[in-house]
Amino acid sequence: MKTLKSTITNAVGLHARPAAVFVKNMGQYESEIQIRNLTGGSDWVNAKSILGVLTLAVEKDHEIEIRIEGADEDAAETEIADFLENELPKQD
Fold first, then answer.
1. How confident is the model at residue 92 (pLDDT cuts 50, 70, 90)?
2. Quick check: 53 and 23 in contact, CB under 8 A?
3. Long-range contact set of residues 44-53: C-beta below 8 Å, sequence gap at least 24
4. Can you tell me the distance from the alpha carbon of 18 to that of 24, in angstroms, rounded to the nearest whole number?
5. What global pTM score does this model have?
6. How confident is the model over 35-56, as pLDDT tens digits?
7. What gap in Å lies between CA 61 and CA 63, rounded to an integer?
8. Is the separation of the CB atoms in 49 and 80 below 8 Å?
9. Catalytic hit among 12, 15, 54, 89
10. Could you say which DSSP state residue 43 is in?
11. Could you state, in order of their start, the residue ranges of all structural domains in the chain?
């Protein structure tokens, strides 16, 4: 199992368009991928579900945690880290 924590720097957080891109990317992995909003104190939700991700209400400067478990968890971890660091900030 892999775990990542990140603070969201995107001006709009993880809403609408950025969430849709994130969920689409997660859907290509066989691994179970879950996400929660640490700042908001949320429960874990399926990172492959747009409704689940949107219910987290992740805003700018919120800290999230992502848990990945499965056969392709290493590849998923690499893509998630890249998305959070390089792609999400461009999704304003």
1. low
2. yes
3. 47/22, 47/23, 48/23, 49/23, 50/19, 50/20, 50/23, 53/14, 53/19, 53/22, 53/23
4. 10
5. 0.93
6. 999 999 999 999 999 999 999 9
7. 6
8. no
9. 15
10. P
11. 2-90
Domain 2-90 has CATH 3.30.1340.10: yes
Residue 47 carries which DSSP code?
T
Percentages of the chain per state (helix, strand, coil), in multiples of 5: 40, 25, 40
Q: Which residue has the tokens 């909003």?
A: 37
* Separation of alpha carbons 32 and 39, rounded Å: 22
Tokens 């992502």 belong to residue:
66
User: Is 15 one of the annotated active-site residues of the chain?
Assistant: yes
